[in-house]
Write a structure and sequence with these properties.
The chain is an all-alpha fold. The protein has one domain. 82% of the residues lie in helices and 0% in strands. It has 11 helices and no strands.
Length: 210
Protein backbone atom coordinates (compact mmCIF):
# COMPACT_ATOMS: atom_id res chain seq x y z
CA UNK A 1 0.00 0.00 0.00
CA UNK A 2 2.86 2.38 0.87
CA UNK A 3 4.51 1.70 -2.48
CA UNK A 4 1.25 2.43 -4.29
CA UNK A 5 0.79 5.73 -2.44
CA UNK A 6 4.40 6.58 -3.17
CA UNK A 7 3.74 6.15 -6.90
CA UNK A 8 0.64 8.35 -6.68
CA UNK A 9 2.25 11.12 -4.65
CA UNK A 10 5.57 11.09 -6.48
CA UNK A 11 4.43 10.24 -9.97
CA UNK A 12 6.45 13.15 -11.35
CA UNK A 13 9.67 11.71 -9.94
CA UNK A 14 8.84 8.20 -11.15
CA UNK A 15 8.08 9.48 -14.65
CA UNK A 16 11.26 11.55 -14.68
CA UNK A 17 13.18 8.41 -13.74
CA UNK A 18 11.51 6.60 -16.64
CA UNK A 19 12.50 9.34 -19.07
CA UNK A 20 16.08 9.40 -17.77
CA UNK A 21 16.42 5.62 -17.89
CA UNK A 22 14.42 4.70 -20.98
CA UNK A 23 14.23 7.84 -23.13
CA UNK A 24 11.71 7.50 -25.95
CA UNK A 25 10.70 4.06 -24.67
CA UNK A 26 8.86 5.98 -21.94
CA UNK A 27 5.99 6.51 -24.39
CA UNK A 28 5.66 2.74 -24.84
CA UNK A 29 5.75 2.14 -21.08
CA UNK A 30 3.03 4.75 -20.48
CA UNK A 31 1.01 3.24 -23.33
CA UNK A 32 1.12 -0.18 -21.65
CA UNK A 33 0.12 1.18 -18.23
CA UNK A 34 -2.94 3.00 -19.59
CA UNK A 35 -3.81 0.06 -21.86
CA UNK A 36 -3.69 -2.38 -18.93
CA UNK A 37 -5.69 -0.11 -16.62
CA UNK A 38 -8.48 0.32 -19.17
CA UNK A 39 -8.22 -2.99 -21.00
CA UNK A 40 -7.59 -5.73 -18.45
CA UNK A 41 -10.19 -6.37 -15.75
CA UNK A 42 -7.60 -7.32 -13.14
CA UNK A 43 -5.72 -4.00 -13.22
CA UNK A 44 -8.20 -1.35 -12.02
CA UNK A 45 -5.72 -0.19 -9.35
CA UNK A 46 -3.23 1.33 -11.82
CA UNK A 47 -2.93 5.16 -11.54
CA UNK A 48 -4.78 6.26 -14.69
CA UNK A 49 -5.84 9.83 -13.86
CA UNK A 50 -2.72 10.62 -11.85
CA UNK A 51 -0.46 9.20 -14.54
CA UNK A 52 -2.07 11.25 -17.31
CA UNK A 53 -1.93 14.40 -15.23
CA UNK A 54 1.69 13.86 -14.17
CA UNK A 55 2.74 13.05 -17.73
CA UNK A 56 1.20 16.35 -18.84
CA UNK A 57 3.13 18.25 -16.18
CA UNK A 58 6.34 16.49 -17.22
CA UNK A 59 5.65 17.40 -20.85
CA UNK A 60 5.53 21.04 -19.76
CA UNK A 61 9.21 20.74 -18.80
CA UNK A 62 10.08 19.61 -22.31
CA UNK A 63 10.94 16.06 -21.24
CA UNK A 64 8.08 14.69 -23.36
CA UNK A 65 6.30 15.93 -26.47
CA UNK A 66 2.78 16.75 -25.30
CA UNK A 67 1.12 16.12 -28.69
CA UNK A 68 2.85 12.78 -29.20
CA UNK A 69 2.09 11.90 -25.59
CA UNK A 70 -1.62 12.74 -25.93
CA UNK A 71 -1.89 10.79 -29.19
CA UNK A 72 -0.21 7.67 -27.82
CA UNK A 73 -2.17 7.67 -24.56
CA UNK A 74 -5.46 8.30 -26.40
CA UNK A 75 -4.72 5.27 -28.56
CA UNK A 76 -3.95 3.25 -25.41
CA UNK A 77 -7.24 4.32 -23.78
CA UNK A 78 -9.33 3.51 -26.85
CA UNK A 79 -7.61 0.20 -27.61
CA UNK A 80 -7.74 -0.74 -23.93
CA UNK A 81 -11.50 -0.28 -23.74
CA UNK A 82 -11.91 -2.13 -27.02
CA UNK A 83 -9.92 -5.05 -25.63
CA UNK A 84 -12.03 -5.03 -22.47
CA UNK A 85 -15.21 -5.05 -24.53
CA UNK A 86 -14.17 -8.20 -26.41
CA UNK A 87 -12.98 -9.88 -23.21
CA UNK A 88 -16.47 -9.34 -21.83
CA UNK A 89 -18.12 -10.45 -25.03
CA UNK A 90 -16.23 -13.70 -25.53
CA UNK A 91 -15.28 -14.74 -21.99
CA UNK A 92 -18.20 -13.54 -19.87
CA UNK A 93 -19.26 -16.98 -18.67
CA UNK A 94 -15.82 -17.64 -17.22
CA UNK A 95 -15.40 -14.25 -15.55
CA UNK A 96 -18.89 -14.25 -14.07
CA UNK A 97 -18.05 -17.50 -12.25
CA UNK A 98 -14.98 -16.07 -10.50
CA UNK A 99 -15.66 -16.32 -6.77
CA UNK A 100 -13.93 -13.20 -5.55
CA UNK A 101 -16.13 -10.79 -3.60
CA UNK A 102 -14.15 -7.70 -4.61
CA UNK A 103 -14.13 -8.62 -8.28
CA UNK A 104 -17.84 -9.39 -8.26
CA UNK A 105 -18.61 -6.20 -6.32
CA UNK A 106 -16.76 -4.04 -8.84
CA UNK A 107 -18.46 -5.90 -11.66
CA UNK A 108 -21.90 -5.38 -10.10
CA UNK A 109 -21.20 -1.67 -9.49
CA UNK A 110 -20.18 -1.28 -13.12
CA UNK A 111 -23.32 -3.11 -14.25
CA UNK A 112 -25.55 -0.79 -12.19
CA UNK A 113 -23.63 2.22 -13.52
CA UNK A 114 -24.01 0.95 -17.08
CA UNK A 115 -27.76 0.28 -16.74
CA UNK A 116 -28.33 3.70 -15.20
CA UNK A 117 -26.47 5.73 -17.81
CA UNK A 118 -26.71 3.51 -20.90
CA UNK A 119 -24.27 4.25 -23.70
CA UNK A 120 -23.19 7.46 -21.97
CA UNK A 121 -21.70 5.26 -19.25
CA UNK A 122 -18.84 4.46 -21.63
CA UNK A 123 -17.87 8.14 -21.65
CA UNK A 124 -18.77 9.01 -18.04
CA UNK A 125 -17.02 5.98 -16.56
CA UNK A 126 -13.68 7.28 -17.84
CA UNK A 127 -13.70 9.65 -14.89
CA UNK A 128 -14.54 7.02 -12.25
CA UNK A 129 -11.53 5.00 -11.05
CA UNK A 130 -12.16 1.22 -10.97
CA UNK A 131 -15.57 1.61 -12.62
CA UNK A 132 -13.91 2.64 -15.91
CA UNK A 133 -12.11 -0.72 -15.98
CA UNK A 134 -15.32 -2.73 -15.66
CA UNK A 135 -17.93 -0.79 -17.66
CA UNK A 136 -16.40 -1.79 -21.04
CA UNK A 137 -16.42 -5.40 -19.85
CA UNK A 138 -20.12 -5.14 -18.95
CA UNK A 139 -20.81 -3.58 -22.37
CA UNK A 140 -19.23 -6.66 -23.91
CA UNK A 141 -21.17 -9.04 -21.68
CA UNK A 142 -24.45 -7.40 -22.72
CA UNK A 143 -23.28 -7.50 -26.38
CA UNK A 144 -23.76 -3.78 -26.96
CA UNK A 145 -23.63 -2.94 -30.66
CA UNK A 146 -19.91 -2.56 -31.39
CA UNK A 147 -20.32 0.37 -33.78
CA UNK A 148 -22.26 2.38 -31.21
CA UNK A 149 -19.87 1.29 -28.47
CA UNK A 150 -16.89 2.43 -30.55
CA UNK A 151 -18.32 5.93 -30.99
CA UNK A 152 -18.72 6.39 -27.24
CA UNK A 153 -15.35 4.74 -26.63
CA UNK A 154 -13.45 6.99 -29.05
CA UNK A 155 -15.09 10.16 -27.79
CA UNK A 156 -14.57 9.20 -24.15
CA UNK A 157 -10.95 8.24 -24.72
CA UNK A 158 -10.10 11.50 -26.47
CA UNK A 159 -11.89 13.63 -23.86
CA UNK A 160 -10.41 11.79 -20.85
CA UNK A 161 -6.81 11.90 -22.04
CA UNK A 162 -7.01 15.47 -23.35
CA UNK A 163 -8.50 16.80 -20.11
CA UNK A 164 -5.82 15.34 -17.84
CA UNK A 165 -2.77 15.51 -20.11
CA UNK A 166 -3.35 19.08 -21.30
CA UNK A 167 -4.62 20.07 -17.86
CA UNK A 168 -1.33 18.89 -16.41
CA UNK A 169 0.59 20.51 -19.25
CA UNK A 170 -0.90 23.95 -18.70
CA UNK A 171 -0.70 23.72 -14.90
CA UNK A 172 2.88 22.53 -15.27
CA UNK A 173 3.80 25.98 -16.53
CA UNK A 174 2.52 27.54 -13.31
CA UNK A 175 5.29 27.83 -10.66
CA UNK A 176 2.94 27.09 -7.74
CA UNK A 177 1.77 23.82 -9.35
CA UNK A 178 5.37 22.72 -9.94
CA UNK A 179 6.33 23.45 -6.35
CA UNK A 180 3.26 21.73 -4.88
CA UNK A 181 2.98 18.68 -7.11
CA UNK A 182 2.35 16.26 -4.22
CA UNK A 183 -0.53 18.44 -3.00
CA UNK A 184 -1.93 18.54 -6.55
CA UNK A 185 -1.81 14.72 -6.65
CA UNK A 186 -3.66 14.45 -3.33
CA UNK A 187 -6.36 16.86 -4.55
CA UNK A 188 -6.66 14.98 -7.85
CA UNK A 189 -6.85 11.63 -6.08
CA UNK A 190 -9.58 12.99 -3.80
CA UNK A 191 -11.63 14.48 -6.63
CA UNK A 192 -11.46 11.34 -8.77
CA UNK A 193 -12.55 9.09 -5.90
CA UNK A 194 -15.39 11.30 -4.60
CA UNK A 195 -17.99 9.56 -6.82
CA UNK A 196 -16.85 6.18 -5.45
CA UNK A 197 -17.23 7.27 -1.82
CA UNK A 198 -20.63 8.85 -2.51
CA UNK A 199 -21.79 5.61 -4.13
CA UNK A 200 -20.44 3.60 -1.18
CA UNK A 201 -22.22 5.89 1.30
CA UNK A 202 -25.51 5.63 -0.60
CA UNK A 203 -25.24 1.82 -0.68
CA UNK A 204 -24.60 1.80 3.08
CA UNK A 205 -27.63 4.01 3.73
CA UNK A 206 -29.87 1.77 1.65
CA UNK A 207 -28.74 -1.32 3.54
CA UNK A 208 -29.19 0.38 6.92
CA UNK A 209 -32.78 1.39 6.10
CA UNK A 210 -33.82 -2.10 4.97
Amino acid sequence: MNDFLDIILHTDEKLLDLVNNYGTYTYAILFMIIFCETGLVFFPFLPGDALLFAAGILAATGALNVWLLAGILTAAAILGNTSNYFIGRYASKYFLKIKNKYFQKYLNDANVFYEKHGGKAIVISRFFPIVRTYVPFVAGVTIMDFRIYSLYNIFGGIFWVALFVFGGYFLGNIPWAKENFSLMMVILLFLTTVPFWISLFQSFRKKSTV
